[in-house]
Q: What sequence folds into this?
C-alpha cells in the first residue's frame, strides 16, 4: 500500500492529522494487516504516524509497530459500541 492510499483511506473516514499523526477516534477499532505471504494483524491501533517509507502504528497497550508501506495489505475499521452506561448495578 502506498502512503497516498493510507492518507486517502483515513480522509474517507474523516480522520485528520495533527503534526503528521492520525489519532483514531474512540468509537473506532483499527487493525492493520501486514506481511509478505503470511499475514499478521496489529489490533487496537489508536494512532498512525506516517513517515517517509514507513508508518508507525501505536496501540492502546503502548506498543509501537514500524511497517514499510509496501507490506501493509489492509486497514480494518470496526465501530465500537459506544452506548452510555451508568456506573453501578441496574
A:
Amino acid at each position: 500500500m502506498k502512503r497516498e492510499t493510507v492518507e486517502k483511506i483515513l480522509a474517507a473516514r474523516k480522520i485528520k492529522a495533527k503534526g503528521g499523526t492520525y489519532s483514531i477516534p474512540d468509537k473506532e477499532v483499527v487493525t492493520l494487516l501486514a506481511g509478505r505471504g503470511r499475514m499478521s494483524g496489529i489490533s487496537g491501533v489508536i494512532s498512525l504516524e506516517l513517515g517517509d517509507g514507513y508508518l508507525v502504528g501505536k496501540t492502546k497497550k503502548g506498543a509501537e509497530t514500524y511497517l514499510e508501506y509496501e507490506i501493509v495489505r489492509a486497514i480494518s475499521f470496526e465501530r465500537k459500541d459506544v452506548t452510555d452506561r451508568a456506573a453501578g448495578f441496574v
